[in-house]
Specification:
128 residues
Length: 128
């Protein structure tokens, strides 16, 4: 094996192992039905951003005991501190345009995947 081949093999192996070490990890996944109660905050004001609806849905589920058929539990958003991070988590994650519209309209089931990455936690949201 030449020096150049050995060097390239080492570089490639290091690059592959570094990529594996940085792989994001699925922490949790749940489905949630977005009902009328999820579209308003505790003061009765209409929510205008998808992340707000996700946060309210999880607060309703965990804090207030309000759920609809189709709601699944999760342990991540059981923490009020984690619910506070919903905006940033969605900002760093993805949301289908259909899911964003469905969140603000209500009456549909969304799927939320919670990931842990090198730069922090994030969520991906789709419509079922």
């Amino acid at each position: 094996m030449t020096y150049r081949t050995a060097f390239l093999t080492t570089v490639m192996a290091f690059g592959l192992s570094a990529g594996i070490a940085r792989a994001d990890r699925l922490v949790e996944e749940y489905d949630a039905y977005i009902g009328e109660e999820d579209l308003y905050n505790s003061n009765g004001e209409a929510l205008t951003e998808p992340w707000q609806v996700i946060r309210q849905d999880r607060a309703n589920y965990h804090r207030y005991g309000v759920s609809q058929p189709g709601d699944e539990g999760d342990s991540f958003f059981a923490s009020a501190k984690n619910r506070e991070k919903a905006e940033r988590m969605l900002e760093y994650g993805t949301i289908e345009s259909r899911a964003a519209r469905a969140l603000l309209r209500g009456g549909s089931v969304i799927n939320v995947q919670i990931f842990r990455g090198a730069d922090g936690d994030y969520i991906n949201v789709t419509v079922d």
